[in-house]
Structure formats: structure tokens, C-alpha cells
Design a protein that fits this description.
Helices cover 18% and strands 34% of the residues. Strands 3, 4, 5, 6, 9, 10 and 11 form a 7-stranded mixed sheet that branches. By secondary structure, the protein is an alpha+beta fold. A hairpin with a 6-residue loop joins strand 7 and strand 8. It is globular and about 55 Å long.
Amino acid sequence: MCGRYVMARAVGDLVAELEAEAEASMELRASYNVAPTTDVPIVLERIIEGVPHRQIHVATWGLVPGWAKDPAVGVRAFNARSETVQEKPTFRAAFKARRCGVPVQGYYEWKKSPDGKTKQPYFVHSADGSLITFAGLYEWWKDPAQADGSPEQWLLSCTILTMPSPPEGELATLHDRLPVPLSPAALAEWLNPENKDTRPLLDAALAQAWELASTWELDAVSAAVGNVRNDTPELIAPITP
């Protein structure tokens, strides 16, 4: 699973690394301890006058389907299991038509001690510090309590897809679930709204995920990351466990 991650890049950095567009007025809050229900950047693609545009938007982490009566549904939908994403009512419509990428600088996972009494947090990241982009979905939810035209009328939300962890290696000992990473080429296919045959897209992403993840590094970090109110660069500093 993926329940905490790091995203402290500036908008300009995301635009460059993801080869995307962003509104000049967009603001992102740098965070070393991103948690569900907070606002995060996502990358998606829209067809405007016949031309594809890759764009960066800000979405709430925790997907709220269009049919939901209350946005609180998103609290439990920050991850979507790849095995059931096509069938689950919360995700299936977004999977067909509203796929996105969720860029991260790395994510946190907790490993149980041999005696099972404590957990050591680890920061999982690319070896060179480059962005990792996870396969995600996004959705728009219309708030019936807001007046038409109100800037608060529409909520954009997102989720991150997960899959089983590799059977061997460090990631296998860390957690039994893994967020699904996308290569640049896979990201381009995943984002393309004209790709309507979604099962092959997912199969292709899953087929290369373990290989991509095998290049990541795992650093033991301070237990302070367990408190979401802690949000400083020191959280990703390696320690000796």
C-alpha cells in the first residue's frame, strides 16, 4: 500500500520533469509527509480542440466517485487494488476514462521488527533522486450544497493503484503491497484518454513494475514520520536502525 509519501518539488520542476503544462497561478505546498485527504499534484491528459495536452492539477488524495453523497468516501479510497479496480464501483468509471499519474519523490513504509512489537519506517526512493510516477485515477465530484459556478462546487480527487510486492528482495520484506510505478513510455500510454481498452494498459504497467521497483533504494528513517504533523526535510534523512 502507499499511505504516506514525499512531494516537495516546485511547480516548475514538475512541469520540466513530467513535460507537462500548469497554470501560472498554481501553488503547491512542499510536504515531506503527505497523508491521505491532503492536496497533491497529479498529471493527466486532456484533448483540447483535437490536440492532447498533458497537464498538472491539484487533487485531494482519496478518490470520491461522482455518485457519492458525501466526500468522506475518499478517506478510505486513497489506494485502489489493481486486482479489483475494474469491478469496484468506487473506481471502475475512473479506470475507464480518467487515469492519471501521481508523482512522488519517494514513499514511506513500515517494517515490523522480528518480535512484532515495533515498526521501523523506511523511505523508498529512486537511486538518483528523480521522480517516481505512480499509476493513478482521478475523479470529479459535484457538491450539491454549492451554488452553480461556485469555485467550491467541484472537487477533484485521486487514488494510487497498488499491486502485490515482488516475491524476493528488500521490498518483499517491507510490505506485501506495492504502489504501481510507470516508466515514461508507460505513463504516456496510461494518460492517453483515447486509449479505451484499459485492461492491456494495466497489464503492461504491472508487467514492468517489479523491474522498475528493483532500482529503488530503501533508507531507514526516524519514527517521527509516524506523526503527520511532523513535516520537515529531516524526515527523509537516513538513520541506523
